[in-house]
Amino acid sequence: MLIYTIRHGQTQWNAERRLQGQKDIPMNDTGREQARQNGIALAQLLGERIGEFDFVASPLGRTRATMEIIRNAMGLPPEDYHTDPRLVEISFGDWEGSTLKELRASQRERVQERNAGKWNFIPPGEYAESYEILSWRTASWLNSVERPTVCVTHGGVIRTFFKMVAGLPEDVASEGAIPQDRIARIETAEQTIGWL
Questions:
Q1: DSSP state of 83
Q2: Which terminal Cβ of the chain has fewer Cβ within 10 Å, N or C?
Q3: Is the model's pTM score more than 0.90?
């Protein structure tokens, strides 16, 4: 199945390198322009095939806003898409809102533990997740896709797609940069994923 996946546009927390997770931080001006440019690129890419595609986003505000800007740039009704909670970003638990630099000053051993095995590390906090735990719900979503899809989601979710679809090792999938100004092309049947 063909899926075009886009990370939401930049937020102020992204710019400050804060762990954002499931906190509902809005996009900044840079993020809105990234979304608009991705919409223009996607319109050119899909051309007359736009009608073949389903459009789905994480229910968080920054992903919904990104989707609406993308669809507007494509000349489509901005709110004509659906959301799926399985696409919500990983939860960083009590670490959300902090930078790794701040955490190294107060929780050095836990940060070192994370650095030693990021994929399976669970931050402190009642609802915190590892990338492995996140992949359980994102796999459920991937397996439910029945038609070509445009998906707006989060960096952590896209990392799990890279591991599940392309078979990247855990350490590679959890460390790779996930740009906010590019589109990832995922082909599940061919088990390929790459940036456009």
A1: E
A2: C
A3: yes
